[in-house]
Specification:
2 domains; mainly alpha; globular; 64% helix
Length: 275
């Protein structure tokens, strides 16, 4: 290790200065104290998910019936039951701090994996710059909803599939991730399979037929794993049923127009004038 790239401490130990910089940047950029506006949106989906989790805990059973919809004709199903229990337990133990802690754990995990992946090949200033720019694209997201689990699961599958792990390990990992996805954000299971099949196609293109067969077998196993949830096969059809409800998309926040902050509006106006 080059001397100018390390920090020396007593006892002869040294720490890579670049690693220290990235760790500090990671902690600062994704600190929940900078995202209080998002945390204020816990009155929406997050609040009802906490309520469902608390109801399940207090009743001592999973609640599969439709009793929480706020919109006529909404095809609501508890396809995120694992998440309901997670935020319910977090809120029961630590209140709002517990929910913020759950969101922070997922955001830091997602960012940490990306930083780790590229820390040795990308200049640290570029990494930090991209991370700062991603703030404009709503990451990190401290609205504690199950999409955080989906983001982490999708990232982990891609990370593992691009790694040097064995084909068997990748296959087992995909099956396990699918099982968890069916519990925490079941509506996203088809998306997880779509990402996995991209790698299956790549194996076919490079004529790796043995790996392709193993991956196809693991996909069949993962499908069975996805059925091991309280809703069974409805996990697969939920997204299609919800998509067919046009009224739902009118009130869904992901499809709503972006609300620009004052500083964002000022920046856009300044850049337009500069041109």
């Amino acid at each position: 290790m080059k001397k100018e790239m390390s920090l020396n401490y007593k006892g002869g130990r040294s720490i890579d200065a670049k690693s220290v910089f990235l760790i500090c940047a990671l902690i600062l950029i994704y600190c929940p104290f900078f995202y209080t506006e998002m945390i204020g949106n816990y009155v929406g989906d997050t609040a009802i998910q906490i309520r469902i989790g608390l109801d399940c805990l207090s009743s001592g059973r999973f609640i599969p019936t439709e009793i929480y919809s706020w919109h006529d004709g909404l095809s609501w199903l508890p396809h995120e039951i694992g998440w309901y229990y997670l935020v319910g337990i977090a809120y029961k133990l630590l209140g709002l701090a517990g929910i913020i802690g759950v969101a922070a754990a997922f955001n830091y995990s997602i960012a940490g994996i990306i930083f780790k992946k590229y820390s040795k090949t990308v200049h640290p200033l570029i990494l930090v710059g991209i991370a700062a720019a991603a703030r404009l694209l709503s990451f990190p997201n401290y609205i504690a909803r199950p999409h955080l689990f989906s983001e982490l699961a999708l990232l982990l599958v891609i990370y593992v599939m691009l790694s040097e792990k064995s084909t068997l390990f990748k296959s087992i990992f995909f099956c396990g991730t699918t099982f968890l996805m069916a519990w925490f954000h079941g509506g996203m299971v088809p998306v997880l399979f779509a990402v996995f099949f991209v790698f299956v196609v790549i194996e076919l293109v490079y004529k790796q037929f043995k790996n392709t067969l193993i991956y196809l077998a693991s996909a069949a196993g993962a499908f069975l794993c996805s059925l091991l949830n309280p809703l069974g096969f409805d996990i697969w059809t939920y997204g299609f049923k919800q998509s067919a409800n046009t009224g739902f998309w009118q009130i869904n926040m992901e499809w709503a127009p972006k609300n620009f902050e004052i500083w964002e509006t000022a920046g856009l106006k300044s850049s337009t004038r500069a041109r």
